[in-house]
Structures are given as structure tokens and as C-alpha cells.
Design goal:
The protein is mainly beta and 340 residues long. It is built from 4 helices and 20 strands.
Amino acid sequence: MKFICVNVICVMSLCVQSIVMACTGIMLRTEDNSAVHGRTMELSGTPDISIVVIPRGYGFIGKTPNGDGLKYAAKYASVGAILYNDAVVQDGINETGLAVASLMFATCSEYTPVTTIDEARKAIESESVVITPTVIEGWGPTAPQFHYMVYNKSGESIVIEPVGGKLIVHDNPFGVITNSPTFDWHMTNLRNYITLNPNDLPPINIRGVTFKPFGEGNGMFGLPGDFTPPSRFVRAIFFSTTAIPSKTVGKGVEQVFHILNNFDVPLGLVRETKDGVVSYDHTVCTTARDPQNLYYYYKSYDDQSMRMVQLKQFDLEAKEIKRLDTKSKQVIVDMTDKLK
């Protein structure tokens, strides 16, 4: 088995500290059927998040509970986000347009155990891939639990989940993902919401009494609004599939951010108390990916301005990683003098 870091698979991945729970990912298509996609990142505290460009051939060493795992080099250059200065792209896109994101998969992840050097050797020689339960500095006292979303340039997507010690792959026709439980469970749960309709419903008459809707949006009455993964999955499906296709990829990216705004977790709304200490989840970062032009977009909790990095503008054969801290302060533009 090829041992790779618990927080990365394929070329790259993303999302967590010790209590991350609410990441949401969506995909949209533009009028010419181009795919754009993005996700929210929910974490507690103020984690270090950097945007990086990793060149072709950059070397990595996988992590396992028994020490170093597989040594490997990036076949393609990529751009995306890393956390805690761990130079492994957690969410991003490579030069072929392949995008990967990792999201929390708490209570459902069952990684492959590795107990001896012999097992490790046989695993590497078999050339199969597993994810091992490895504690990583900066990510908390236990191994982070993830599942993975993968998109190719055309928008075809799969979900990869470590269940029962094996990696299970699901086709994902909608390009939507949240967190636990398993992807097939979420797809089954959608059957509870097939009556939802973006069209407003007309008044009805019952025994001579006319009942009119209170207002707009009544066709979506019953859409779950809480922050649990099943509810966010349902909302993400309906928001993304009812969105009007944008005329351009750029406008499609803007629409991704508009939709993901509906999944923002304000600081204080989601909290957890352990040993008398209260932790707060919130949306620390939201990202979007344009696989056509290889643009990577992001905005943070403290700065809602959309920022973008163009992968093609870098030397993809460079020897070193390019890095940018995402910390910034929201600029408020005073328009007082512009009024006429």
C-alpha cells in the first residue's frame, strides 16, 4: 500500500482542526457547460491558512503511525490552500484541471490500521493506496477524519470515503458534498425532499375557503435550515441545481460564492464544550476553483473581498513553493463623496 498523509489523497485535499464539522462543497455549470466549484471551510480558533503554488516535481513524504511513509513527487503543479504550514495542498486544483477537497467525516472514517513494518512493506509493494490514522501536528490530539471530493476539468466528480478500512468510491452526479454520514446515505435522504419546488405555489380552495401563500418561496417550504451535514447537503443540492447558469465562467465563480454565502457559520452559532472549554466553529475561509483557466479564488471570515491566484502565471518548474498568508483586514470603501 502506498502510505500518504491522512489529510491528502491523489494530488491534494482539505478542512479541520479538532472540531471542524460544517464544510460544504458545490458545483455549478455555466451556459457553455463549463464546471466551476467551491467550498466553505469551517474550523475553530484562528488557524494558519496559506495559499500556495507547488511546482512540478516537488517532493513529499507521506505520514503513517509508524513514521515516514511513501516518498513521492508531485507530477503536476497545483495551487490551493494549506493549513498549519504543512506543505500539502488541502483544497485546490492542479495544472490539468483536477481539483480535490477534503471535508470532515467524523464518526464514519475507518482508516486502515498498520501495526508492523512488514505490513508497511507489503502495503507499499502491493502498490495500492490507503489512508492511515495519523496524528498530525497542528490538527489536534487525534487523527483528523476526512472524506474526499474529486472533480476533473469537465466536472465529473467522485467521493472517496475510508469506510471499514477500505477506500469506497461513489460517483457524484451533483458535485455536492458535506460531512457525515456516508455519501450514499445522503443520496437516499434526498428522497425525503422530492416535493420541494422552486416555483411558487398558487392559492388553493378547500370547501369554499381560499388559502393564499404568505409570500414568495413557498414551493421550497420544508427546506431544512440547520447546520447539520444532512440538512446542508439537501440545501446544497437544491441551491446548486436550481441556479440559473451563468453566461461566463467568471460569473459562474461569483455565483458559487453567492450560494456558499448561505452556508456561512457566524462565530458563536456552532459551539462545543469539552472539559469546561468552549470552542466555536465558524467559516474561516471560502474557496472557488475555475478548472478552465486554472484560477483559484478565496475569501476569509475577516475579509469578504474575493481574491484570486492564476496558476499559469507561475514557473511550474520552479524548485520552491510560493506562499501567501490569507490573513487580511476588510477594506470598507467610503462612498460619501460620490453621492450627487
